[in-house]
Design a protein that fits this description.
The chain is mainly beta. 3% of the residues lie in helices and 53% in strands. The strands form 8 sheets. Strands 1-2-3-23-22-21-20 form a 7-stranded mixed sheet, with no helix packed on it. The protein has a 4-stranded antiparallel sheet with strand order 4-31-30-29, with no helix packed on it. Strand 29 and strand 30 form a beta hairpin. The protein is globular, with a radius of gyration of 21 Å. The protein starts with a strand and ends with a strand. The N terminus is likely disordered.
Length: 359
C-alpha cells in the first residue's frame, strides 16, 4: 500500500496492482464513501423547460421506441427512434428539423439501431446492433459503414475513439473485455477483462447486477457490473484509474417484483436473491460528474434516488428522479430524458439543472 489520504466525506486509498493485461495502467485509486453525501437532499433540483412528443402532432413528433439521445454544442437534440429505424433531429426550442436514416439493409439504411454518438463538430455515428457503425454528417448525408459484428456494444468518443465490449477468453476463462480502437477499428489497448461466472443454462438470474457504462468528458469510461457498490472509472489515455465505492444498505426485492418476474419467466427455474444489486445504471455529465441510479425509492414510491459523484469519486449528493423519467444526457446544466406514460407513449423532456451545494 502506497498511502492513505483522508478528505471530507471520502477515504482514498492508492494501491499498486499486480500483473494486468498489456497496456492497462497499473495504478488504481479507490474512493470509499460513507452512506451520507457531502451535501443536502436539495443539492440538485430539476425544472422541466422543454417537452417533445405526440402532443405537438404528426409522425415527426411521435416516438415508436425512442432509446438513445445525444445533444450537440448548439443544443440540437438527436433522438434514436428504434421503432422508426431513424434519428429524429430537433432544434434547441424543440422544433422538428429532419430525420436521418431509414429501415433497410443498403448503404445508410438501418436494421436495428441501438445508440447514437457525436464525433467532433460534424459527424454522427449510429450503432446498428447486428451489423456495425453507420457514419453520417449531422445534416443527414451518409458517409460510410463499418462492420462490427464481433462487438456486443460500443461507445464512441468525440475524438473518434471506439470503446467496445467484446467476447474474450483469457487464461482459459470466458468473459467480456473492454477494448479501445481507433476510428479505423485498429485495436489500441485492452482496458478491462471481466470473467464470466459459470452458470447452469437451465437457471436464470433475473435480479443479478447488469453491465452498464458511460463516457466521461471523452477521456474516461465509467463501468458498473457488480452486485456490490463499485464503479470503475478507466482512463482511455493511459492516466490513472479510479474505483468508486459507497457504504449502502441493500434494498430488498419485494414480493410484487418477484411475482411479476415469475410471470415473465413463465415457470423456468430462477435463482432469486433476497436483495437487489447496488445499482441500476450510470451516466456522466460534461463536467466529469457521475450519476448512479440506485434501487432506493422515495417514501411515496414514485421516484428512485440517484447518487452523484464528482470526478474524483466524492459522494456529493443524493437526489430523487421520478420513475417515469429515464435520464439519457446530462449536458450544459440540463438533463435530457425520456418519459413514458401508462399507455407507453414516450416524450422527450429537457430539465434545467440547478445546484445548491450547501451542507
Amino acid at each position: 500500500m502506497k498511502g492513505r489520504i483522508v478528505l471530507p466525506g471520502i477515504v482514498v486509498l492508492a494501491l499498486t496492482l499486480g500483473p494486468a493485461p498489456a497496456e492497462t495502467p497499473q495504478g488504481l485509486t479507490i474512493a470509499s464513501n460513507p452512506k451520507s453525501p457531502l451535501f443536502r437532499l436539495d443539492a440538485l433540483t430539476l425544472k422541466e423547460d422543454l417537452s417533445i412528443g405526440a402532443a405537438q402532432g404528426g409522425k415527426d413528433y411521435t416516438f415508436f421506441h425512442a432509446a438513445s439521445i445525444v445533444v450537440d454544442d448548439g443544443g440540437n437534440i438527436y433522438v434514436m427512434d428504434q421503432g422508426d429505424a431513424c434519428i429524429k433531429v430537433y432544434a434547441e426550442n424543440g422544433k422538428y428539423l429532419r430525420s436521418i436514416g431509414r429501415k433497410g439493409q443498403g448503404p445508410g439504411e438501418l436494421q436495428n439501431p441501438n445508440t447514437i454518438h457525436l464525433i467532433g463538430d460534424s459527424r454522427l455515428v449510429f450503432e446498428d446492433f447486428y451489423r456495425g457503425l453507420n457514419i453520417f454528417t449531422r445534416e443527414g448525408k451518409f458517409i460510410s459503414f463499418m462492420p462490427t459484428s464481433d462487438f456486443i456494444d460500443v461507445l464512441v468518443t468525440p475524438e473518434n475513439q471506439i470503446v467496445a465490449r467484446v467476447n474474450a477468453i483469457k487464461s482459459d476463462l470466458k468473459g467480456k473485455e473492454i477494448r479501445v480502437y481507433d476510428g479505423e477499428l485498429n485495436l489500441r489497448k485492452a482496458l478491462l477483462f471481466i470473467p464470466e461466472e459459470p452458470r447452469d443454462p437451465q437457471i436464470i438470474k433475473p435480479f443479478a447486477g447488469l453491465f452498464d457504462w458511460a463516457l466521461s468528458q471523452g477521456d474516461r469510461v465509467a463501468i458498473s457490473f457488480k452486485d456490490d457498490y463499485e464503479i470503475d472509472v478507466l482512463s482511455l489515455q493511459g492516466g490513472s484509474n479510479l474505483r468508486v465505492k459507497r457504504d449502502f444498505d441493500r434494498v430488498k426485492i419485494t414480493k410484487e417484483e418477484i411475482d411479476a418476474m415469475q410471470n415473465w419467466i413463465r415457470g423456468r427455474k430462477a435463482d432469486i436473491p433476497e436483495y437487489h444489486p447496488a445499482l441500476q445504471g450510470i451516466w456522466a455529465d460534461d463536467e466529469g460528474r457521475f450519476y448512479a441510479k440506485t434501487y432506493e425509492r422515495t417514501k411515496d414510491n414514485n421516484s428512485f434516488y440517484y447518487d452523484i459523484f464528482d470526478r474524483d469519486g466524492r459522494y456529493l449528493a443524493k437526489v430523487p428522479i421520478p420513475r417515469a423519467i429515464a435520464p439519457r444526457v446530462w449536458k450544459n446544466n440540463s438533463m435530457y430524458g425520456l418519459e413514458e406514460d401508462s399507455e407507453g407513449i414516450q416524450t422527450v423532456k429537457r430539465f434545467s439543472v440547478r445546484w445548491h451545494l450547501h451542507n
